[in-house]
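Practice problem: predict the structure.
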Amino acid sequence: MQKEKRGFDHLTRTTRHGVGALAMEIKVGRKKKGWTQAELASRTGCSRLTIVAIEGGKPTVAIGHVLEAAHMVGLDVFGGPPTAITRFERGKEINAIFPSRISGKPTEIDDDF
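Answer:
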């Protein structure tokens, strides 16, 4: 994967390689199905240029488009629909435990009487 030219240096190497790997898997999956980029775009509900960006590993592409393209070519990013639903529901349960807002610094208590 090529290094991004538009200021994505803040992304970790792991993230950059992960984006690149997913991009390549989507591209290979599309080719295995014998689809053009335009056909995948039509099935995904986006433009061909968005597919070009996805396959190019651009980190600015909307995550919904990336995940939909992955699903269309047969990649189970989350282990298939039942697992994705289970993970989502479990995430909601865990999220409910935490406060809705987290402040940056804890309030310091003056207990020096």
